[in-house]
Design a protein that fits this description.
Structural class: alpha/beta
CATH superfamily of the largest domain: FAD/NAD(P)-binding domain
Helix content: 10-25%
CATH class of the largest domain: Alpha Beta
Number of strands: 17
Radius of gyration: 21 Å
Order of helices and strands: EHEHHEEEEEEHEHEHEEEEEEHEH
């Protein structure tokens, strides 16, 4: 027997994604009097409500907090959103979105909802390595979340793949546990200057630029990696873990199904003043968009902007 889908519930503003951006947008929408629903099983259920910032050990660039854990900051934003009776947060994942006669219909595995406006704050998912061994040893030494899995590597040797600020921050976090960390970047290692200095002064961290990882080897779990250059006369480095930090893939598939335009990376193209897309009533904010500078603070700001222009759209449309 097919599972019965509940009758559609109506909202003014429906937010796809329960990360910091989506939660801030919901809070602001409620302040503007919009009945708001947040749907979130972020990144295909890999992350809790609060989104990717919950996997960050220490946040030092969010105004009002000199230093706070990502999980604690996300919790504060969630609690603020829940203060408003007009905000409903459901841990459901949208599977289909349609637009009929100017109204959006959103289907999840449990229910159906209709809404006057939609905000895509769906964020991104981790980009994975496409080399021999990466899939075979996933969760057997190959990991994507340093905060989640770092404690498993106490007194072990590990590699962090990537040259971004996120990669270096992962290495600094992992230094609390591991005895040795290699940072391997196919180009230049380019974190924020403060994190680069911290890594340079960390005796456990060795940074290698212009190097590609070609293969991950192991038996029951990871035992070594093969690189495309030699180190101390060898192209094999013995490691017991590999943490991948090579960027993210925007979660824009549902937006595309509505006819929303994306760029060559799959990022949603928005009006950077209003957070609006090319489809009337559809807005986007945060990491899923084509905004160049992406931080939680910029996502939160764009989410609040989106809520304001959703309210303006509804007022003009009625």
């Amino acid at each position: 027997m097919k599972k019965e889908i509940a009758k559609s519930s109506a909202y003014d503003f429906l937010v796809m994604g329960a990360g910091g951006t989506g939660l801030a947008a919901a809070m602001y929408a409620a302040r503007l009097g919009l009945k708001t629903l947040v749907l979130g099983k972020s990144n295909g259920s890999e992350l809790p409500v609060g989104g990717v910032i919950t996997t960050t050990d220490s946040v030092e660039n969010y105004p009002g907090f000199a230093k706070i854990s990502g999980f604690e900051l996300a919790k504060k934003i969630e609690e603020h959103a829940r203060e408003y009776p007009l905000v409903t947060i459901k841990e459901e994942e949208a599977v289909k979105v349609e637009k009929k006669a100017g109204i959006f219909f959103v289907k999840t595995s449990k229910s159906k909802y209709k809404t006057k406006t939609i905000l895509f704050a769906t964020g991104t998912k981790w980009r994975k390595l496409d080399i021999p061994g990466s899939k075979e040893f996933e969760n057997k030494g190959v990991h994507y979340c340093a905060l989640c899995d770092g404690p498993l590597f106490r007194n072990k040797t590990i590699a962090v793949v990537g040259g971004s600020d996120s990669a270096v921050k992962d290495a600094l976090l992992l230094s609390k546990y591991a005895k040795k960390i290699y940072i391997l970047a196919r180009g230049r290692i380019h974190p924020e200057p403060i994190n680069l200095e911290r890594a340079k002064h960390d005796k456990k961290i060795e940074m290698m630029e212009d190097v590609n990882i070609k293969e991950i080897r192991g038996k029951e779990s990871v035992t070594s990696i093969i690189i495309d250059r030699t180190r101390k006369g060898k192209n094999e480095i013995n490691v017991e873990g590999v943490f991948v930090a090579i960027g993210h893939i925007p979660m824009s598939e549902l937006a595309k199904s509505l006819g929303v335009k994306t760029d060559e990376k799959g990022e949603i193209i928005i009006n950077h003043e209003t957070s609006e897309t090319n489809v009337r009533g559809v807005l986007a904010a945060g990491d899923v968009t084509n905004k160049e500078f992406k931080q939680l603070i910029t996502g939160v700001a764009d989410g609040c902007t989106a809520a304001y222009y959703a309210h303006e759209f509804i007022m003009k449309d009625n």
